[in-house]
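Input (structure):
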């Protein structure tokens, strides 16, 4: 069709219409994609399929930021993205030990809501496949008998963790980007290292949202191949690794080999993720990770974030030496 449009003005007009096949091109291509921008959908609806085809391609290629309407799920209409979530190995075994993905299962199904909260989608065991419940994050129905009992009863659900989200433009450790490029999560009242938004590398036009400790994917995460052997990890300088437990109540002091990304972890993780762009590591977010591990409730952002980090760090050092 593109070649025909160069033959003459008449062919240009004929090959630009929906009847020439552009609408079918949109239908075929978009059926393999998890997300198509609203502008392209509107153009196709107004019978401008050729323009819609071009706009959709350019948007998927050039826009790395996610919009609120793309990020969020509508629990009333049951429309919107459902994200698969898993922790990274760098989060530590205190978190990965109860992550279903690390047991070879699918990641948790999570949704971002317009009210700024994050919930987990689970099936009611009494109506599997028919009734979906919005539960507190990490409400593990499949492996938690207490959670199953609460879902089967009419009692108020047990609150495990509260999670909320908001966009930020210039988090600490990272360059300033347009709105929708970074998402700051608050977990049980404490902000965690910023999540970075980028397109998935699997070609489905979807998004990956990742931090140094976890990631959300708009498409299904490849399963972990638990049978794959661990490869030898290069020897590195031993040093102490400090990490707080889930509730932040105590420190874990681990003398071992410090690794900064899953690339230096196990072969089975690398085979399962099928993504070369899981690039957000503790090396990139060391200030935010350090502040969180030292008990910070909120994380600095904006142009003065580094200076704020220095101030908080100096106060922390002084208080620990009193």
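Output (sequence):
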């Amino acid at each position: 069709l593109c070649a025909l449009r160069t033959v003459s003005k008449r062919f240009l007009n004929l090959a630009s219409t929906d009847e020439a096949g552009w609408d079918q091109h949109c239908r075929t291509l978009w059926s393999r994609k998890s997300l198509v921008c609203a502008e392209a959908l509107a153009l196709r609806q107004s019978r401008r399929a050729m323009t819609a085809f071009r706009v959709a391609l350019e948007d998927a290629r050039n826009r790395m930021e996610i919009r609120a309407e793309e990020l969020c799920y509508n629990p009333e209409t049951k429309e919107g993205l459902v994200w698969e979530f898993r922790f990274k190995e760098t989060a530590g075994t205190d978190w990965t030990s109860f992550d279903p993905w690390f047991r070879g299962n699918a990641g948790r199904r999570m949704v971002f809501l317009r009210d700024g909260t994050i919930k987990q989608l689970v099936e009611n065991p009494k109506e599997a496949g028919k009734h979906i419940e919005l539960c507190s994050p990490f409400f593990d129905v499949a492996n938690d008998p207490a959670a199953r009992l609460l879902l089967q009863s009419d009692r108020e659900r047990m609150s495990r963790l509260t999670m909320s989200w908001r966009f930020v433009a210039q988090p600490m450790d990272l360059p300033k980007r347009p709105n929708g490029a970074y998402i700051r999560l608050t977990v049980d009242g404490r902000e965690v290292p910023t999540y970075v938004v980028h397109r998935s590398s699997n070609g489905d036009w979807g998004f990956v949202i990742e931090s140094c400790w976890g990631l959300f994917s708009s498409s299904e995460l490849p399963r972990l191949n638990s049978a794959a052997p661990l490869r030898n990890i290069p020897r590195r300088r031993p040093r102490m690794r400090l990490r707080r437990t889930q509730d932040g109540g105590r420190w874990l002091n681990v003398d071992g080999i410090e690794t900064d990304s899953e690339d230096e972890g196990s072969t089975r993780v690398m085979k399962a993720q099928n993504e070369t762009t899981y690039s957000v590591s503790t090396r990139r977010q060391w200030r935010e990770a350090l502040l969180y591990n030292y008990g910070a409730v909120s994380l600095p952002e904006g142009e003065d974030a580094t200076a704020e980090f220095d101030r908080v760090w100096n106060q922390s050092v002084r208080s620990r030496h009193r």
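Notes: The mean pLDDT is 75. The longest strand covers residues 238-244.
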